[in-house]
């Protein structure tokens, strides 16, 4: 006759053994899968680093380039324009740091000469210019680089300008006896190196046409002696005689115009205008340094001709001016 107590005891004895066997089997399955999981992980890391290395190939600062883009998730699926955008984001972060750094230095300096003060102000303006230029490039890259091939030369020019700004900032302290230059130098070099790497990556974007068959390649395609991007109205302005040109403002030394100096006329011009703003400068010698802000985007100066309308100035380092501020018109 079947004894239920014996069966129950047998169950109690067999249950721990069965559970132990199941644990072993489960462990075996897990142990069996681990090498495959590890291989997938290694493969992913390899692809990640390979993509970073490929994108940074040919750059002057490959270690900086790789360390900048290798932190991006899913790097293997990113296009070159996306990698350039990521580099520009880091560059703009560096610009903000450098701007804050030089502002703090200015506050902490107990005394500084006129030239150092001018150089510090130059740097702050140049940082603003750099930020504006990098933003233009970033927006011109597009989500997948669709517009890069069309705007390649413009993007290249903006990046080159952004890189030059850093050296111009440092040059302002060339004749200074202080240590501001040495303090800010590393940060500015980082910015320049990032921009340099971006320029190299830009050259490698698929579909970019780097050939320059035109006489003036910076103007783009030329038709009938004018760049194709120049509007019909602007072409007419360039071809029109003085009598046929409509002026928005007139500068005249004798007081017969709207202003007696060019600087005031430039200040009165609208910012970020979509249409050409024409300033006629009558014959005369204008002794002034004309600074045109980057917001004055569509200005056109018209004079009475060589040796008739003359703009001159004499700023120099001896008088406490940096090279950046010494241009007669800039």
From TrEMBL:
Domain of life: Eukaryota
SUPFAM superfamilies: Pectin lyase-like, Plant invertase/pectin methylesterase inhibitor
GO biological process: cell wall modification; pectin catabolic process
PANTHER family linked to this entry: PECTINESTERASE (PTHR31707)
InterPro entries hit by this protein: Invertase/methylesterase_inhib, Pectin_lyas_fold, Pectin_lyase_fold/virulence, Pectinesterase_cat, Pectinesterase_inhib_dom
UniProt family annotation: In the C-terminal section; belongs to the pectinesterase family. In the N-terminal section; belongs to the PMEI family.
Pathway involvement of the protein, from the record: Glycan metabolism; pectin degradation; 2-dehydro-3-deoxy-D-gluconate from pectin: step 1/5
GO molecular function, one term: pectinesterase activity
SMART domains the UniProt entry points to: PMEI
UniProt KW keywords: Aspartyl esterase, Disulfide bond, Glycoprotein, Hydrolase
Start and end residues of each Pectinesterase inhibitor domain: 47-201
Protein name: pectinesterase
EC number: 3.1.1.11
A matching Pfam family: PMEI
Keyword flag Repressor: no
Record organism: Gossypium laxum
């Amino acid at each position: 006759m079947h004894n239920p107590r014996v069966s129950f005891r047998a169950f109690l004895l067999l249950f721990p053994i069965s559970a132990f066997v199941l644990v072993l089997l489960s462990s075996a399955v897990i142990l069996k899968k681990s090498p495959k999981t590890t291989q997938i992980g290694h493969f992913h890391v390899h692809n990640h680093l390979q993509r970073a290395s490929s994108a940074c190939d040919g750059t002057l600062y490959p270690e900086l380039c790789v360390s900048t883009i290798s932190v991006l998730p899913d790097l293997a699926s990113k296009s070159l324009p996306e990698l350039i955008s990521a580099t520009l984001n880091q560059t703009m972060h560096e610009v903000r740091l450098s701007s804050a750094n030089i502002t703090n230095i200015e506050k902490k300096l107990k005394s500084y000469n006129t030239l150092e003060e001018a150089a510090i102000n130059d740097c702050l303006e140049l940082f603003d210019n750099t930020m504006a230029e990098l933003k233009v490039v970033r927006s011109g890259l597009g989500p997948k680089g669709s517009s890069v091939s069309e705007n390649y030369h413009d993007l290249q020019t903006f990046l080159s300008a952004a890189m030059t700004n850093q050296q111009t900032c440092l040059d302002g302290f060339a004749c200074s006896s202080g240590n501001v230059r040495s303090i800010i130098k590393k940060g500015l070099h980082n910015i320049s190196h990032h921009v340099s790497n971006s320029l190299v990556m830009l050259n490698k974007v698929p579909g970019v046409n780097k050939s320059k068959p035109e006489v003036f390649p910076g103007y783009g395609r030329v038709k009938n002696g004018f760049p194709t991007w120049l509007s019909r109205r602007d072409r007419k302005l360039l071809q029109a005689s003085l009598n046929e040109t409509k002026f928005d403002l007139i500068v005249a030394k004798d007081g017969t115009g709207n202003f007696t100096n060019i600087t005031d006329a430039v200040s009165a011009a609208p910012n970020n205008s979509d249409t050409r703003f024409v300033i006629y400068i009558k014959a005369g010698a204008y002794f002034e340094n004309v600074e045109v802000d980057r917001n004055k985007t569509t200005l056109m100066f018209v004079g009475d001709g060589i040796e008739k309308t003359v703009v001159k100035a004499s700023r120099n380092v001896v008088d406490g001016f940096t090279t950046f501020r010494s241009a007669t018109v800039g």
